[in-house]
Design a protein that fits this description.
10 helices, DNA-binding, homodimer, mainly alpha, globular
Chain lengths: 219, 219
DNA sequence: TTATGTTTCAAACATCTGTTTGATAGTGAG
DNA sequence: CTCACTATCAAACAGATGTTTGAAACATAA
């Protein structure tokens, strides 16, 4: 039982520190000392720092991708081959995030920040791991988005999908800092749910915006 | 003359490497060896690695913030106290980016990627530096956005502004990778200008989206 | 020329990094 | 108890990091 305790103590503190400072900026020594475990424990239980990072992600992404997959099953059954509105598709994704059981009390904001880091700070091994492990689920979701916006040219949707991703990941990954500001300036204590609920109309409107005029931009 | 050559050779290669791998992942030794200058040159000319990072940013942000400031002068003169449409305000910002003289041939994509890193990977010193150095200009711009969307509640605008920022920074910071995919999948060789031109309608629509229904989210 | 200030260079410095080792303690089964 | 296995620990390891040093090369002006 002692080993499980050590393992999860490491995972918890690693998660917090990674989210705070990033991966390479967080040393194993600061993790282990803060977790009150021996330095060698990380390499003993996880093998290497890289594997530790992956384990931190897996603890969130395993349940998340499973939930998302089931939710998509449910959606397709409910609409039975018919068209699914875009905002419903998007809400499915965010609902999967919100209903996901959180392994730590930090909850979502740490996970969101990690997602952001994974995308920008992604060293090669991380990108590969995420792609191999969770690629299919996200590919399935991307396809649902495609069907829900079939009037959009493929190239345009491609870019708008990434604008959407950016809006979500970026704001979520700085969520804590932004919440503090919002609280101080507007007296609004926004939870993750509120922010997500604000995000949906924004990206939905963005996805169905009029097509851009690309004339004169051929450089 | 030799010293200027050394300085800019360091800046050029540092910029490229930072954009590729991030700040802490790039060592002074890889920078100096790739730039074919002595290791000590960085500390001699810049003082420290932190200052090098700031110098890389300054080379872009100094001209940019100056241009943006002047463009805002021009706008306010043109509209002479009247309301400035939101998409015009936003275009001003992107135009400032596009017309900015690029110190290196990497051009914008490196700069955009750096901006993204600065925001997500921002160690304390970077955030402070950016705020102190370029805070006023961006504050002025934020105010223009506020006036151009005065019908929006303050809190709502606050969050949408960050959604917007996220969409821009995120997609721009992965621009090169995304361009490759877009080229391969759709045969479209999109330049920075095209992407920006696609971005404008997206964020404009998002900014003027219907207000979210926040009921039932009080957790 | 000499003298002065600046820039380059190889080498060393101190510190921090992830990882390994071998000894020690703890645990549960036979 | 004894044995085999697992987990913890302090210590050391090998390498990389940013930074400093002191001498050498260079340039510029008197």
């Amino acid at each position: 039982m002692a080993q499980l305790d050590t393992v999860s103590r490491i995972l918890d503190t690693a998660e917090t520190l990674f989210a705070e400072k990033g991966f390479s900026e967080t040393s194993l020594r600061t993790i282990t000392s803060k977790a009150k475990v021996n330095l060698a424990a990380v390499n003993y239980h996880f093998g290497s720092k890289k594997s530790l990072i992956q384990a931190v992600f897996a603890r969130y992404l395993d349940p998340f991708s499973e939930i998302l997959d089931k939710e998509m099953d449910r959606l397709e059954a409910e609409y039975a081959g018919g068209d699914i509105p875009l905002d419903v598709v998007l809400s499915t994704f965010t609902n999967a995030i919100l209903t996901m059981p959180s392994p730590t009390k930090n909850g979502l904001s740490a996970f969101m920040r990690l997602l952001g880091l994974a995308y920008t700070q992604a060293q090669g091994h991380m990108r590969r791991y995420l792609q191999e492990q969770y690629g299919p689920v996200f590919f399935r979701f991307a396809n649902m988005v495609k069907n829900a916006s079939s009037d959009l040219p493929d190239v345009e949707r491609f870019w708008r999908l990434h604008f959407m991703l950016g809006a979500a990941i970026f704001s979520m990954s700085s969520l804590e800092a932004l919440q503090d500001i919002a609280d101080k300036d507007f007296g609004e204590q926004a939870g993750v749910r509120d922010v997500v609920q604000r995000l949906i109309p924004f990206v939905t409107a963005g996805m169905s915006a009029p097509l851009p005029d690309l004339s004169g931009s051929n450089e």
